[in-house]
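F.,

This is the one I mentioned.
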């Protein structure tokens, strides 16, 4: 069973922020942060994770996605990270495993540099955010949605969407999400200061990467892991930028192994 609720938070220095989230299951808490494709990119995976692992999975909607309100001052990945630190406190959670895909992974990385007292580990899944010489993040905003599929999946034809065939409301929602993504991450989807700051991370961290990711390649992923003290790197074969959609069962096993190994962190 899933439950959806909205939480009113006071986030320093942003001010009041409303966060809509969905919860599934019970047990050890997981905070699952979606990427630029929006909450639907993690919904089915959240179901699978909760059902097979006996855990509580919390999936917030980044404010501004899916028509949710976004305060003008909430306009950076760092501000989103502060918002989710406040959310963990509001929910009074401990021992949380924070899992983020794409910009969700970038948000998780920024969270790892804030108050981590309620977190037992971070899992960055094909996360963007750092700059790697010679291995830039693909210019997502210059691509059609079909071209986005080409660079996102090992087998893109299984996931390709004909946007022109969607109802006008769905097309408008996708465009609005894309605009919100640009507000938070900019067009480059990187922060030149992030890699250097990640040396301060002290919480166990796993970087998971799809071998077929062509939005940010595996060299980028290894560089991200190398920037975080003690981080481990797992490369998933026949998987692209969204393992939670393309190889969800394998990703569940990876998360389960990580959570088990760091249950007392």
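My design for it:
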């Amino acid at each position: 069973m899933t439950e959806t609720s909205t939480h009113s938070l006071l986030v320093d220095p942003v001010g009041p922020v409303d966060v809509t989230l969905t919860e599934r299951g019970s047990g050890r808490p997981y905070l699952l942060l979606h990427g630029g494709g929006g909450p639907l990119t993690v919904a089915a995976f959240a179901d699978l994770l909760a059902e097979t692992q006996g855990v509580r999975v919390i999936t917030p909607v980044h404010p501004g996605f899916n028509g949710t309100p976004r305060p003008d001052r909430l306009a950076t990945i760092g501000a989103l990270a502060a918002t989710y630190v406040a959310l963990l406190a509001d929910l009074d959670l401990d021992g949380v495993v924070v899992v983020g895909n794409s910009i969700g992974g970038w948000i998780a990385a920024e969270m790892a540099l804030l108050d981590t007292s309620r977190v037992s580990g971070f899992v960055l899944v094909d996360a963007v955010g750092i700059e790697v010489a010679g291995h830039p993040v693909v210019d997502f905003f210059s691509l059609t949605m079909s071209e986005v599929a080409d660079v996102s999946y090992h087998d893109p034809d299984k996931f390709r969407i004909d946007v022109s065939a969607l109802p006008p409301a769905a097309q408008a929602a996708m465009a609005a999400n894309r605009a919100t993504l640009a507000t938070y991450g900019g067009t480059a989807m990187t922060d030149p200061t992030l890699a250097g700051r990640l040396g301060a991370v002290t919480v166990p961290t796993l970087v998971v990467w799809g071998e077929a990711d062509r939005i940010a390649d595996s060299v980028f992923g290894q560089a991200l892991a190398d920037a975080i003290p003690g981080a481990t790197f797992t490369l998933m074969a026949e998987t692209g930028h969204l393992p939670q959609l393309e190889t969800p069962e394998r990703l569940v096993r990876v998360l389960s192994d990580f959570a088990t190994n760091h249950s007392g962190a």
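The two ends are 29 Å apart (CA to CA).

Talk soon.
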